[in-house]
């Protein structure tokens, strides 16, 4: 050839892991690079409103080594209804974690997360035992309230009368609750509470029946063939009648001056007494 040949230039590249030469840390193998969290196994079943204790959470790299320089916190979540934020980790590990599930069902999760890195455990959760059945002295008649009585309250809980199926009032844990005395239908609910966690409610209804109407109509005094005066008194319609004369029919004939009343009762057993009617000659 007529010119000087130039030699080809060759470059050689190398990968130095965790070396002084490069100062580069390989994120695939470094024990100091957070990849996920490991949550210790949680047995099944657990119970809503009852704490799960002794959980261990460990910060891990991609090779499942403990990330010993992780000293942050994690946020709690998952389908078991657990919320909150953890304490700080020590050397990549957090022990003695206690959390309380609030949602019942199979395959519920407890998850932890920090900056998009997550970990979880799966377990079954049964519902906290609800209070025992409510009993009452229903029905009542207007003027007398219904007394509802709580059933048994699950151990470790306090049972409250609440205003609805989802009520969370904590101002009445008495064994009984008595309604107003006005006629109508009354419904009550009781829920058990354990540290702010609520059971499903138990409910009962009762009725206060209105009183019947008690009144008397009278015919004018008449004279019979013997010359005696007589009046016919008739009660308003009812199921049973009891006159002040001890008569038990709807109408009575009276021939003596005086005051007369009738007490009537309806099919519900509610009774009322009429105003007196005065018979004069």
Notable characteristics:
281 residues, 5-stranded mixed sheet, 41% strand, disordered N terminus
Characterise this structure.
The protein has 281 residues and is mainly beta. Helix content is 0%, strand content 41%. The protein contains no helices and 25 strands. The protein is rod-shaped. Mean pLDDT is 89; it is low at 1-31.
Write the layout of secondary structure elements.
Layout: E1 36-39, E2 46-47, E3 52-60, E4 75-77, E5 84-85, E6 93-99, E7 105-114, E8 117-126, E9 135-136, E10 140-141, E11 147-149, E12 158-162, E13 176-178, E14 184-194, E15 197-198, E16 202-209, E17 216-218, E18 222-223, E19 229-235, E20 240-243, E21 251-254, E22 258-260, E23 262-265, E24 271-273, E25 277-279
Parallel strand pairs: 2-8, 10-16
Antiparallel strand pairs: 1-3, 3-6, 4-5, 4-7, 7-8, 9-11, 11-13, 12-14, 14-15, 14-16, 17-19, 18-19, 19-21, 20-23, 22-25, 23-24
Largest sheet: 5 strands, mixed
Percentage beta strand: 35-45%
User: What distance separates the N and C termini?
Assistant: 161 Å
Low-confidence stretches: 1-31
Coarse morphology: rod-shaped
């Amino acid at each position: 050839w007529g010119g000087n040949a130039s030699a080809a230039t060759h470059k050689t590249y190398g990968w130095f892991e965790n070396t002084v030469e490069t100062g580069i840390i390989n994120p695939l193998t470094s024990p100091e690079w957070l990849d996920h969290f490991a949550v210790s196994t949680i047995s099944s079943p657990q119970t809503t409103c009852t704490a799960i204790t002794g959980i261990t959470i460990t910060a891990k790299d991609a090779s499942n080594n403990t990330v010993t320089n992780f000293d942050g916190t994690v946020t709690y979540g998952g389908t078991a209804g657990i919320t909150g934020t953890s304490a700080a980790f020590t050397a990549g590990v957090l022990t003695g974690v206690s959390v309380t599930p609030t949602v019942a069902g199979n395959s519920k999760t407890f998850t932890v997360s920090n900056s998009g890195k997550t970990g979880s455990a799966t377990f079954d959760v049964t519902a906290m035992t609800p209070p025992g059945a409510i009993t009452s002295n229903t029905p009542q008649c207007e003027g007398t309230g219904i007394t509802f009585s709580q059933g048994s309250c699950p151990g470790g809980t306090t049972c409250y009368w609440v205003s609805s199926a989802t009520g969370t009032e904590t101002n009445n844990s008495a064994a009984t609750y008595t309604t107003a005395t006005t006629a109508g239908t009354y419904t009550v609910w009781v829920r058990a509470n354990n540290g702010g966690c609520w059971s499903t409610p138990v409910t009962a209804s009762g009725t206060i029946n209105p009183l019947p109407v008690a009144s008397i109509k009278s015919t004018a005094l008449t004279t019979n063939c013997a010359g005696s005066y007589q009046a016919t008194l008739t009660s308003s319609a009812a199921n049973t009648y009891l006159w002040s004369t001890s008569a038990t029919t709807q109408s009575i004939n009276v021939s003596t001056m005086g005051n007369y009343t009738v007490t009537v009762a309806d099919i519900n057993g509610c009774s009322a007494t009429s105003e007196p009617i005065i018979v004069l000659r």
